[in-house]
Write a structure and sequence with these properties.
Helix content: 10-25%
Structural class: alpha+beta
Largest sheet: 6 strands, mixed
Strand content: 25-35%
Order of helices and strands: EEHEHEEEEHEHH
């Protein structure tokens, strides 16, 4: 880790490191896409997306059963997960709509993951991520 001291006024204070998220007006913590690399290393549950639905996810859409490549065994419903492509490159994160066992029984058009954030947000919302 980095150990550093800073002695100066609040006007001269700058940030360094990774922005993991922001607090809302209602004091809830919301993860943002800049936390993805950290989350991908340590998350318990992951979802892999087929190449056919990769671009759709990057445009902010949910993932359907037809686009599901793999899912971590034992993943419960409404669990936060990291979304990866089939080459294990992190694309974003979301919340499962169904558990692992439910996913295997669904029709191809059923939603299995709700989109929360993706790497394309760097382009779409750059001014909100930096400030």
């Amino acid at each position: 880790g980095i150990n550093a001291e800073y002695m100066g006024g609040r006007d001269h204070l700058m940030g360094c490191g990774i922005c993991m998220g922001k607090f809302t007006h209602h004091e809830n913590f919301r993860l943002i896409i800049t936390a993805l690399d950290f989350l991908a290393q340590y998350c318990q549950y992951k979802v892999w997306v087929k190449p056919t639905q990769e671009q759709s996810f990057l445009y902010g859409n949910n993932i359907t059963r037809a686009g599901l490549g793999r899912i971590t065994q034992g993943c419960p419903r409404y669990q936060g997960v990291v979304v990866l492509n089939m080459a294990d490159i992190p694309l974003g994160f979301g919340v499962t709509a169904k558990s692992t066992t439910e996913c295997h029984k669904l029709e191809p058009t059923a939603t299995i993951l709700f989109h929360e954030a993706d790497v394309a947000e760097y382009l779409r919302n750059e001014e909100h991520l930096v400030s």
